[in-house]
């Protein structure tokens, strides 16, 4: 089977931009979130003891079955030698993935949480006539209820944040690298060099002035036009927040990865 690695981490933190850059390399395949995580969860459930016939399923069979999902999903139509599969919940599945792919590497994209919440709110406001799938197409609410919904343990941001901490402090943390959004947009050459070094691939000359990614149809269906839009040129953009000051302050100290003393597993942070 071809090499497979994973992109995970926090939403609105550069995973789409990272995928768009990686796919410039003809040896690589990368994209926005795939359906594989849902398929893995479904198969784990079906092979659990809730299935009365699970006594006939060995762990070796479980591994082969789950690996088969990846092997067949990325079949002959994918010519790439190296696959990067994306889902912000992969961090919560790191022990399972290590059972399947002992040599895997996972790049977790991170960003100051205040700016993540700001970014989601900005998308919602830019599409005022389109209720968003992020909030189950609900038409009510305020910036406060939206921020709370994002941040709770089952929310778009809160779940990914907790999964990231689980991986960061877990026993498989040696497979994990954190890539800061701020580094990716301000120094993309440094960021990509670190990614290549981490996954053990030869360097590639990326074009940071001509980046392409098209998910317009998906975003429109989700009621969030522009959700996966990226600029043609990689560049940091200064802006003021659209959030009320108390919401912005609520999350401004949540970047745990910046605390070197708390990095007990020695996770690489770029």
Automatic annotation (TrEMBL):
This is Sulfotransferase. It comes from Dyella lipolytica.
